[in-house]
Amino acid sequence: MLAAERRDHLLGLLAREGKIVAKDVAAELRISEDSVRRDLRDLAAEGLCQRVYGGALPVSPAVADYSARQAVAPDGKRKVAAVAAGLVRPGNALILDGGTTALAVAHALPQDLACTVITHSPTIAAALLDHAQAELFLLGGRIFKHSAVACGAAAVEAAQNVTADLCLLGVTGVHPEAGLTTADSEEAAMKRALAARAADTYVLASSEKIGTASRFRVLPWEKVSALITDADPQDAVVEQLKALGVEILAAG
Fold first, then answer.
1. How far apart are CA 88 and CA 204, in angstroms?
2. CA–CA separation, 130 vs 4, rounded Å?
3. Is 146 helix (H, G, I), strand (E, B) or coil?
4. How far apart are CA 164 and CA 162, in angstroms?
5. Confidence check: pLDDT of 31 > 80
6. In 192-250, beta strands by DSSP E
């Protein structure tokens, strides 16, 4: 089989099965695992898959820059945001992550809601300026432009000095095996710091993120109260997550 044919085969397998196991492909095509791994390296370099131990997973579309992500699945993000905003009660202290889905949550919060919003995103803080009853706390640090959020040691230290009732956390990938992931190590560390300061953490994940993976793990499933997604409840990945004991809040 020619290299181009192997490439098409791998991409088709990724689309159908949601993962590639290098040793299985090698046995199927009667080629070496090294050849499969080289093919996967080439695909990963083009942004077409996320390599993991033993193979590859679908890459998340949420690794695009902030402006581009605003145009990705806006309806799904609004649905997720509506459910997430409904979890916030009057008087609650809320940690609201950055990113485009979190921005949709900010827009979905009632303008007369009396609450405290703690965020490391200047974009989120600006979106809530007209919420007269919302007290805003902005955590500072080095700005990671990909998600328009503060990250780094200063931001993590600031996060360690707050406490909240709930945290609404964004990720770029949600996968039963890879877990909750994002594309930057410092952003992953900041997300962990935020989640650690809340009584409950809910993950915001519109359907295009389900079944995909990025490079850095954010949290294990046992640290999450529930996953909010507009993905089909009968989706195979959603069913696998349920089997793992993950609570799913449908945003259909």
1. 14
2. 54
3. coil
4. 7
5. yes
6. 198-204, 216-219, 226-229, 248-250
Torsion, CA 127, CA 128, CA 129, CA 134, rounded to 10: 180
Long-range contacts of 220-224 (CB under 8 A, 24+ apart): 220/179, 221/179, 221/180, 221/245, 221/246, 223/195, 224/180
Q: How far apart are CA 68 and CA 220, in angstroms?
A: 28
Query: What is the DSSP-derived secondary structure letter of residue 63?
Result: G
Q: How far apart are CA 76 and CA 97, in angstroms?
A: 17
What is the value of pTM for the model shown?
0.85
Please state, as a whole number, how many other Cβ atoms lie within 10 Å of the Cβ of residue 90: 10
Pick the residue with more confidence: 240 or 45? 240
CB 131 within 8 A of CB 147: no
Strand partners, 21: 55
Q: What is the spatial distance between Cα 77 and Cα 98, in angstroms, rounded to a whole number?
A: 13
Residue 239, token pair as written in the block: 């069913």
Q: How far apart are the C-alpha atoms of 102 and 212, rounded to whole Å?
A: 19
Confidence of residue 64 (pLDDT cuts 50, 70, 90): low
The answer to whether residues 212 and 61 touch, using CB atoms and an 8 Å cutoff, is yes
Distance CA 65, CA 81 (A): 20
Report H helices in the chain. Answer: 3-17, 22-29, 33-45, 66-69, 74-85, 100-108, 122-127, 153-159, 185-195, 236-243
pLDDT at residue 98, as a whole number: 94
CA–CA dist 127, 227 (Å, integer): 24
CA atoms within 13 A on the CB side of 205: 33
DSSP, res 99: S
Q: Tell me the Ramachandran region of residue 16: left when phi exceeds 0, alpha when psi lies from -120 to 50, beta otherwise.
A: alpha
